[in-house]
Write a structure and sequence with these properties.
Layout: E1 5-8, E2 12-15, E3 19-22, E4 26-35, E5 41-45, E6 49-57, E7 62-66, E8 69-71, E9 75-77, E10 85-90, E11 93-96, E12 108-112, E13 115-118, E14 122-125, E15 129-131, E16 145-147, E17 151-156, E18 161-163, E19 168-171, E20 174-179, E21 182-185, E22 187-190, E23 194-197, E24 200-203
Parallel strand pairs: 1-4, 2-4, 3-5, 4-6, 5-7, 6-8, 6-9, 7-10, 8-11, 10-12, 11-13, 12-15, 13-16, 14-17, 15-18, 16-19, 17-20, 18-21, 19-22, 20-23, 21-24
């Protein structure tokens, strides 16, 4: 196993395998961080993770498990539809500071954290987009999902956009959601305009 794990490259880091026995923290720094393997790649740490660079999933699924995590750049898929799925599960805060799927839409996106902070302007996937899809056991006044950009669009081209029970989404600007299936939301607050376009829309009550 490993304690802390640090990779720093001037240009590119490429993951071709999983690391599931990191007891401490992990920091990956490069202009581009590529995930390219014949099977899904999983990065699991007992502590935090930082991904400092633009992430490209090359027809490879990526799952991340940590206490908290930060992605400073964009995340895109470089492959055919549905080829690259992203799943992130952290206990504390998850900071996604760049757009997700803006250049190459991901197959599916599943983000789970006590607090999700979104800094980008686009989140695009062909399949489902889950933002704390399992929800929280109790409703709290504080936001559980925060968007920092002046405008954020969330688009599922062939799936659903699902927020869980008791989630509170606060967007510091305009927010739009578009899906070909179901959009499920709860409490949403924006400083700008809010629009939802989908065949089916479910607005959950607080529990």
């Amino acid at each position: 196993g490993l304690n802390d794990f640090t990779l720093t490259a001037a240009d590119t880091i490429e993951f071709g395998d999983s690391f599931t026995d990191i007891a401490g923290n992990a920091a990956f720094t490069a202009s581009e961080i590529r995930v390219n393997a014949s099977s899904p790649v999983s990065i699991e740490t007992g502590g935090w993770q930082t991904w400092d660079g633009d992430v490209v999933l090359q027809e490879t699924d990526l799952s991340v498990t940590a206490e908290w995590a930060e992605f400073t750049g964009t995340i895109d898929s470089d492959g055919p539809m549905h080829a690259s799925e992203l799943s992130i599960d952290v206990d504390g805060e998850l900071r996604m500071l760049g757009s997700i799927g803006a250049t190459g839409a991901l197959g599916a996106i599943d983000l789970s954290a006590d607090l999700i902070t979104l800094g980008g302007t686009e989140i695009n996937a062909y399949g489902d987009i889950l933002l704390n899809g399992d929800g929280h056991a109790e409703f709290g006044e504080a936001a559980t999902i925060v968007g920092l950009a002046d405008s954020l669009s969330i688009t599922s081209f062939m799936g659903n956009i699902l927020l869980g029970q008791n989630e509170v989404f606060t967007q510091l600007g305009d927010l739009s959601m578009e899906s070909t299936g179901l959009v499920r939301i709860g409490d949403v607050n924006t400083l700008g305009d809010f629009s939802v376009t989908a065949p089916n829309i479910e607005i959950m009550s607080r529990e």
